[in-house]
Amino acid sequence: MHSTAYRALSRRRLSMHSQLVSSARRGNSSKTATAIPTLPRLPVPALHQTLKAYLKSLEPFLLEDEARGGSDFKSAYDARLKLVEDFEGGLGQLCQQRLLELDKNSPHNWLDDNIWLNKAYHEWRAPLIVNSNWWLALGDDENVPNDVRYPSIARPGYTDWQVRRAAWLVHRVLDFKAQLERNKIYPDTTRTGLWFRHAALQFYNTCRIPQRGCDRFSPAPSSTDPNARKVLVMAADWMYAVEAVSHDGSSVDPAILERRLRAIVRDVQVRLGEGERAVPVGVLTTDDRDRWADNYEHLLSLSPANRASFDTLTSTVLALSLDDYAYALPPSHRTSDPDLAAHMHNIRSGHDARPGHNRWYDKPFTLIVEANTRAGVLGEHSPVDALVPSVAADYAIVQGVDDDAFPARIGSGMLAIDAVSDAVDTAGWERLDWVTDERIVKECEEAARRAKEIVDDSDVDELVFTAYGVNWIKDEARLSPDAFIQMALQLAWYRTRGDFTATYETALTRLFKHGRTETIRTLSADSRAWVLAMADPKCSNATRLELLRRALQTHTALIRQAATGRGIDRHLLGLRLMLRPDAGESHPLFEDDLFTRSQTWKLSTSGLSAGYQFRGTGFGAQYHDGYGISYMPAAERLRFGVESKWSCPVMDTQGFMDAITEALLDMRTLCTSALQAHL
User: Fold this and answer.
1) CATH number assigned to the domain with residue range 122-455, chosen from the 4 options 3.30.559.70, 3.40.50.300, 3.40.605.10, 3.30.360.10
2) Looking at the annotation, which residues are catalytic?
3) How confident is the model at residue 20 (pLDDT cuts 50, 70, 90)?
């Protein structure tokens, strides 16, 4: 565990995002390589290898069952071994051959081309809000005056600085896209560039489209489609399409974007002043996917104008939501940082009193800017995993608002837009008006009610742990930071629940062409042994540390296997899907209760990046009695975004964050005592 090679592995894993970001910031200054690299195809793992690893992953469940009075380990293990051997010697060979044939006939790889998008995302019928979309709270812009960011009196309405920061962020995200397309950053002369450029371009100019049974993506707009150069802007539930990209692919000047956004805000204020209210069509995107699909078809049937609006909306580069408020949590809400928690709530789902409004949850990348300039990103998960758009977000905010890019100076107060009399552009934008009927109005009301039920049940907050960070873990304790954090989560779960659960950690398969993710099964026999040792007052620290190192070594091996295309969960999914039920094919391996339990990820986790430019991040728990945890490990601190459900009596976000803190402090004490013993 103290070897140079071992420490190098953890450094490579934790530095991936910083390498990507530094590449984006400095551009491509290297000479073009003579040989353009390629990425290999994602392999179909060997059948025996996967089944052997699957059996190994069942051990902690079998040990726990035995400890709690269930079947003895040996007999239960032998029963699963028999299932595995029967499958491997018979139907499994046929399924493996079919999977290999599928891969042979796939342009890129067997998983991404045929399985993952639908099974992981588009076939899910649950609402996207909280359940699927991820959220990212961006750091403050130091150029924004303090009395704008923290006004003494929070007044509703749009502000000058809000519009300026929004224009600047849109400009930066569009510039990121232009640099990608011009091969200036993440060039295709590197393997990292090949993987990242493909992944990053997936979240621009697209949208998820609801369909009964299985959603789809909108068709890619042509390079000559004017809608492909627009940004969707939402304000007070009205929608606008703003010309934001020049014909050469570069972003429109930020000052022009600002003028167009000001014109939109003026349009909204006039309408509100006349007593008009928008039908909140966007809230329909928060609903059950089949219900949204029915309403989508009904909307299209009402008028050709609705079809035109949808075509425009889905083709836009990205979305921007301007919120006419700075959300604040009620005083009764329990949190250590009310401003941060409120920020996270608004990025996740909008104002808690009217969640789902002023958003289009099917867009993969939505910038959100509040009246006090707090900003964030809401992402639809299916086109790409959150790490990739987070790099674009980092690029957007690493450089604050440049006053020189805007000819007009603005004051530091909370000056409402409607108090400004300067001229604004009337060109370069259009309002997307919807033709609605009583059914749509009623469906919007019902969808909003259901969205509020989901949001009201979502307990989300951010833990900022400052006692130490990655530097101490790798330099002082000389351990793998990611594995260390995962063990802390295992200990926190056990201390709060008194048992163990299947745990999902995301691994990127970026070594392969069009690679997405693989599962790291954190719960292992070794992690369980260490957690139990920490709970045993008779166990010595020397033994605990030895067990911790063994658990970390096991976890690091699992990371390596998943990242190099040798994980088991995607392969098991592929094998199961190769069965032909209509021909009577089935196997008890996939019907075994333990097969399901070992994939019931009540602890769903994902490490994002150091996140120096971010305040927090998160995603929803997969199960009612589980946690969704996104963490950002930085040099001197660790951040954890935690989500659970208020309605589950055994779940408690604040309590779990306290347990994570206690686990991390106890682990430092454990490692420090061992270091001191060697002095």
Assistant:
1) 3.30.559.70
2) 381
3) low
